[in-house]
Amino acid sequence: MAADMGGSYGYTLGYKSVERLKPVGKHSLLGASGEISDFQEILRYLDELMRNKFNPLWNSLILGGVKIGQKYLGMVSMIGVNFEDNHVATGFGNHLARPILCDEWHDNLSFEDGVKLLEKCMRVLLYRDTTAVNKVQIAKITEESVTISQPYSLKTFWGYSAFQNLKVGDEGSW
User: What's the pLDDT at 97?
Assistant: First the structure.
Protein backbone atom coordinates (compact mmCIF):
# COMPACT_ATOMS: atom_id res chain seq x y z
CA MET A 1 0.00 0.00 0.00
CA ALA A 2 1.30 3.50 -0.75
CA ALA A 3 0.06 7.04 -0.14
CA ASP A 4 1.41 10.50 -0.79
CA MET A 5 1.67 12.88 2.13
CA GLY A 6 -0.05 15.94 0.68
CA GLY A 7 -2.81 17.73 2.56
CA SER A 8 -4.88 20.23 0.61
CA TYR A 9 -7.49 22.84 1.30
CA GLY A 10 -9.43 22.71 -1.96
CA TYR A 11 -6.73 22.87 -4.65
CA THR A 12 -4.25 24.67 -2.42
CA LEU A 13 -1.54 22.36 -1.11
CA GLY A 14 -1.16 23.33 2.52
CA TYR A 15 0.74 20.43 4.08
CA LYS A 16 3.40 18.06 2.80
CA SER A 17 3.71 15.67 5.75
CA VAL A 18 0.21 14.27 6.32
CA GLU A 19 0.22 10.53 7.07
CA ARG A 20 -2.55 8.70 5.21
CA LEU A 21 -1.58 5.16 6.28
CA LYS A 22 -2.47 3.86 9.74
CA PRO A 23 -2.25 0.40 11.30
CA VAL A 24 -5.57 -0.93 12.60
CA GLY A 25 -4.79 -3.58 15.16
CA LYS A 26 -1.92 -5.99 14.57
CA HIS A 27 -3.01 -7.47 11.24
CA SER A 28 -4.57 -4.64 9.21
CA LEU A 29 -3.67 -1.36 7.58
CA LEU A 30 -5.97 1.50 6.58
CA GLY A 31 -5.13 3.99 3.82
CA ALA A 32 -7.26 7.00 2.86
CA SER A 33 -7.74 9.73 0.33
CA GLY A 34 -10.10 12.66 0.69
CA GLU A 35 -10.59 14.98 3.63
CA ILE A 36 -7.89 14.54 6.26
CA SER A 37 -10.16 15.77 9.05
CA ASP A 38 -12.69 13.07 8.13
CA PHE A 39 -9.92 10.44 8.08
CA GLN A 40 -8.88 11.61 11.55
CA GLU A 41 -12.49 11.26 12.65
CA ILE A 42 -12.61 7.70 11.29
CA LEU A 43 -9.46 6.90 13.24
CA ARG A 44 -11.08 8.32 16.39
CA TYR A 45 -14.13 6.14 15.74
CA LEU A 46 -11.92 3.09 15.36
CA ASP A 47 -9.99 3.97 18.51
CA GLU A 48 -13.19 4.40 20.52
CA LEU A 49 -14.99 1.49 18.80
CA MET A 50 -17.92 3.84 18.16
CA ARG A 51 -20.52 3.29 15.43
CA ASN A 52 -21.31 5.95 12.83
CA LYS A 53 -24.83 7.32 13.38
CA PHE A 54 -25.26 7.96 9.64
CA ASN A 55 -23.29 11.15 9.58
CA PRO A 56 -21.47 10.28 6.31
CA LEU A 57 -17.80 11.07 6.01
CA TRP A 58 -16.20 12.17 2.75
CA ASN A 59 -13.45 9.56 2.36
CA SER A 60 -12.60 6.63 0.18
CA LEU A 61 -10.81 3.99 2.23
CA ILE A 62 -8.53 1.04 1.59
CA LEU A 63 -8.18 -1.78 4.10
CA GLY A 64 -5.51 -4.44 3.83
CA GLY A 65 -4.59 -7.25 6.15
CA VAL A 66 -3.18 -10.74 6.65
CA LYS A 67 -4.32 -13.18 9.31
CA ILE A 68 -3.94 -16.96 9.49
CA GLY A 69 -2.63 -17.03 5.95
CA GLN A 70 -5.61 -15.16 4.52
CA LYS A 71 -4.84 -11.92 2.68
CA TYR A 72 -7.35 -9.13 2.31
CA LEU A 73 -7.26 -5.96 0.23
CA GLY A 74 -10.40 -3.98 -0.37
CA MET A 75 -11.72 -0.48 -0.81
CA VAL A 76 -14.91 1.42 -0.18
CA SER A 77 -15.75 4.67 -1.98
CA MET A 78 -17.29 7.80 -0.52
CA ILE A 79 -20.72 6.58 -1.58
CA GLY A 80 -20.32 3.02 -0.34
CA VAL A 81 -19.17 1.24 -3.51
CA ASN A 82 -16.84 -1.51 -2.31
CA PHE A 83 -14.85 -4.41 -3.69
CA GLU A 84 -11.87 -6.67 -3.04
CA ASP A 85 -9.04 -7.26 -5.51
CA ASN A 86 -5.30 -7.90 -5.72
CA HIS A 87 -4.81 -4.16 -6.19
CA VAL A 88 -7.09 -1.24 -5.34
CA ALA A 89 -6.81 2.55 -5.40
CA THR A 90 -8.74 5.66 -4.44
CA GLY A 91 -9.23 9.02 -6.13
CA PHE A 92 -7.28 9.57 -9.35
CA GLY A 93 -5.44 6.34 -8.55
CA ASN A 94 -8.51 4.48 -9.85
CA HIS A 95 -8.02 6.13 -13.24
CA LEU A 96 -4.23 6.47 -13.45
CA ALA A 97 -2.62 3.81 -11.22
CA ARG A 98 -5.02 0.88 -11.60
CA PRO A 99 -4.30 0.48 -15.35
CA ILE A 100 -0.58 0.28 -14.53
CA LEU A 101 -1.28 -2.24 -11.76
CA CYS A 102 -3.50 -4.30 -14.10
CA ASP A 103 -0.65 -4.50 -16.63
CA GLU A 104 2.28 -5.08 -14.29
CA TRP A 105 1.06 -6.75 -11.06
CA HIS A 106 1.38 -10.54 -10.77
CA ASP A 107 1.15 -13.16 -8.01
CA ASN A 108 4.91 -13.69 -7.74
CA LEU A 109 5.87 -10.03 -7.35
CA SER A 110 8.68 -9.62 -4.81
CA PHE A 111 8.38 -6.95 -2.13
CA GLU A 112 11.16 -4.93 -3.79
CA ASP A 113 9.47 -5.11 -7.21
CA GLY A 114 6.15 -4.25 -5.55
CA VAL A 115 7.70 -1.12 -4.05
CA LYS A 116 9.07 -0.15 -7.49
CA LEU A 117 5.62 -0.66 -9.01
CA LEU A 118 3.93 1.43 -6.29
CA GLU A 119 6.56 4.15 -6.75
CA LYS A 120 5.87 4.15 -10.50
CA CYS A 121 2.15 4.58 -9.81
CA MET A 122 2.74 7.34 -7.28
CA ARG A 123 5.09 9.14 -9.70
CA VAL A 124 2.44 9.07 -12.46
CA LEU A 125 -0.10 10.45 -9.99
CA LEU A 126 2.35 13.16 -8.94
CA TYR A 127 2.86 14.28 -12.54
CA ARG A 128 -0.88 14.27 -13.33
CA ASP A 129 -2.65 15.26 -10.10
CA THR A 130 -2.22 18.92 -9.15
CA THR A 131 -2.80 18.17 -5.45
CA ALA A 132 -0.25 15.33 -5.07
CA VAL A 133 3.24 15.68 -3.56
CA ASN A 134 6.38 13.59 -4.11
CA LYS A 135 6.70 12.66 -0.43
CA VAL A 136 5.32 9.14 0.15
CA GLN A 137 5.23 6.23 2.57
CA ILE A 138 5.12 2.54 1.71
CA ALA A 139 3.57 -0.06 4.00
CA LYS A 140 4.10 -3.79 4.30
CA ILE A 141 1.61 -6.12 5.97
CA THR A 142 2.60 -9.58 7.16
CA GLU A 143 1.05 -12.02 9.60
CA GLU A 144 3.47 -10.79 12.24
CA SER A 145 3.19 -7.03 11.84
CA VAL A 146 2.32 -3.88 9.93
CA THR A 147 5.34 -1.78 8.93
CA ILE A 148 5.07 1.73 7.50
CA SER A 149 8.22 3.27 6.02
CA GLN A 150 9.55 6.61 7.05
CA PRO A 151 8.44 9.34 4.63
CA TYR A 152 10.72 9.75 1.62
CA SER A 153 10.71 11.75 -1.60
CA LEU A 154 10.25 10.14 -4.99
CA LYS A 155 12.85 11.02 -7.59
CA THR A 156 11.21 13.17 -10.26
CA PHE A 157 12.22 14.81 -13.54
CA TRP A 158 10.47 18.02 -14.56
CA GLY A 159 12.66 18.71 -17.61
CA TYR A 160 10.31 17.07 -20.13
CA SER A 161 9.44 19.47 -22.95
CA ALA A 162 5.72 19.05 -22.20
CA PHE A 163 6.33 20.51 -18.74
CA GLN A 164 8.27 23.51 -20.07
CA ASN A 165 5.54 25.27 -22.07
CA LEU A 166 2.18 24.11 -20.78
CA LYS A 167 0.15 26.15 -23.30
CA VAL A 168 1.67 24.57 -26.42
CA GLY A 169 -0.84 22.24 -28.04
CA ASP A 170 -3.80 23.68 -26.16
CA GLU A 171 -5.34 25.38 -29.19
CA GLY A 172 -8.99 24.41 -29.43
CA SER A 173 -9.10 22.78 -26.03
CA TRP A 174 -11.39 23.87 -23.24
Answer: 96
